[in-house]
Structure formats: C-alpha cells, structure tokens
UniProtKB/TrEMBL annotation:
Name this protein carries in UniProt: Uncharacterized protein
Keyword Nucleus: no
Keyword GTP-binding: no
WD repeat windows: 1-26
InterPro entries named in the record: WD40/YVTN_repeat-like_dom_sf (IPR015943), WD40_repeat_dom_sf (IPR036322), WD40_rpt (IPR001680)
Keyword annotations from UniProtKB, A to Z: WD repeat
Length: 109
C-alpha cells in the first residue's frame, strides 16, 4: 500500500493490497474516484500533471504482466509492472506526465 498527495495538497491518492486505488478530496473528506484492478496488489503510487492540467495516477504492481489504463473522470489511472530497475510505460494521452510519475516510482521509492 502507498499514499501520495497532489501539488497543492487538496487531494490524496491511496492504494491497497486488494487492487483498489482511491482518489480523495481532502477539503470535503470524500472519495472522488475509485479504480479497481482485481487480483493485483498495488504497491506504489505517484501523481503527476502534464501541461494540459490532466492528472495521471501511476501505480506499480509486482505481479501484473502488462500495462493497464482506466481513464475515468479528471484522473487517468495506469498500472505498470516493474521489470528490473525499469518500468514498462505507455499511454494514449499525457505520456510526459505518465513518464514523470513512472520515473518517480522507479527511482525515488
């Protein structure tokens, strides 16, 4: 499990070993979005924003074999698998933001 805050600390993202990723609004104390990757323990998470102000949630699962994306609402969740010290990464939108978040997962955690 892991947790990360957005740039202005108004939102938080949490992950769990049951494959759930939750995106929370801290001011309202409500869950804004939910992503479920069944059968995958989500170990790490990072938030990143691109120049278009789209938020990208990048999560890491040790057992997941391929990239998975769930675009929904203001944030897009992406699941990736660690392969040695590198991450496989692809995105249909916001590749730069997704890559920055993936790099944060690979090299700072």
């Amino acid at each position: 499990t892991d947790v990360d805050f957005n740039r202005d600390d108004s939102r938080i993202i949490t992950t769990s070993s049951d494959g759930c990723i939750y995106y929370w609004k801290l001011g309202a104390l409500t869950r804004d979005q939910e992503y479920v990757f069944k059968g995958m323990a989500v170990n790490k998470v990072a938030l990143s924003r691109n120049n278009k102000k789209e938020t990208h949630i990048v999560a890491l699962c040790e057992t997941h074999n391929e990239f998975t994306s769930q675009p929904q609402g203001p944030a897009e969740a992406m699941m990736m698998r660690r392969q040695s010290t590198m991450l496989q990464r692809r995105s249909t939108r916001g590749l730069d933001a997704a890559a920055m978040a993936a790099d944060a997962l690979a090299f700072t955690r």
